[in-house]
Amino acid sequence: MALSETRIDQIGVQERVARLQSRSIKNDSKIEALTLALSMIDLTTLEGSDSPNKVRQLCYKATHLHENFPGLPHVAAICVYAPMIGTAKKALQGSEVKVAAVATAFPSGMTSLKTKLDEVKIAVQDGADEIDMVISRGRFLSGDYDYVAEEINKVKEACGSAHLKVILETGELVTLDNVRAASEIAMTAGADFIKTSTGKIQPAATPEVTLVMMQAIRDFYLKHGKQVGLKPAGGISKSKQAIQYLVMLRETLGQDWLKPDLFRFGASSLANDILMQIVKQNTGIYQSTAYFSID
Questions:
Q1: Which of 44, 109, 124, 264 is disulfide-compatible with 79, CB 3.0–4.6 A?
Q2: Residue 238 designated active-site
Q3: Exactly one of 129, 132, 192, 273 is catalytic; which is it?
C-alpha cells in the first residue's frame, strides 16, 4: 500500500515533548484533568496467573473506585485475556464499563491469520465490546505493508460491532518513521484506535512515540474526516504522567479528543495514583497506599 512521504524530525519531536511537559496547570484544572484521566483508564490484567476471582476483583474496582468519593467516574473498560470475557461481562452487568479483550496471538502475533480471525470471532461471540489486536511486526519490518494492512482489515471485519484497537508494539518498530508508517497503515485499514504497546516490551508508551501517533491521527482526520482514537499503554503509572499526556493530546488533537471514546490509558496501577492525588486535593493529606486495592 502507498504511504505518505512524511518523515519524522526526531529532535523536533523531542523538543516539542519537552515544551509540553514543562506546562503547569492550576489546581482547579488539575482536579478536572485527574477526573478525566480516571474515566479514560482501561484497567488491565494480562498475566498467565489471571483467575476468575482476580478478574471479578478488578471489575469491582472498575465500578467502585473510592467509596468516600461517590461522584467519581467509572473507568472506561477492563482489558483481559479472551477466556475471562464471560467472567468480566457477568461482573460488570448493569454498568457502563466496557470489556476489552486482547486477541490475535497477543503479545507476539505469531500464528496464522485463520487462527487470529477465529480467536477474534470467539471473543466477540463471548461478549467483548472491544478487541485489542497486535500487528505482525516481522512482516512490517520486512516491508510487507500490504500483508499488515490486509490482516488488520480482516480482523476489523471479524470484529463486527466491536471496536478495534490496533497495537503497533512501538518498542519493536525501531524508528519514529516506522511508528508513523504503522499508524497510517492501521488507520487506513480500519482501526478505531491505535495503541502503542502490549506492555510486554520495553520501551512501551513514551511521550515521543505518542506525539508521533497523535500527529498521524491529526493528519488522517484532516485528509479523511475520520476520528481515530489513541491508547498509550505500558509504563504510565503516575498521575503527573497522565496529565502530561492530556496536555499533549489537547495541544495536538484538540478538545474533541478529550473523551474516553477517543483516548484511553492502558494501565493497572495508574488508577491508584490518581485516586491518591484526588484525595490529596480534596482533603489536603495523602492516604496510605494500603487504602487502595493493589490490582
A1: 44
A2: no
A3: 132
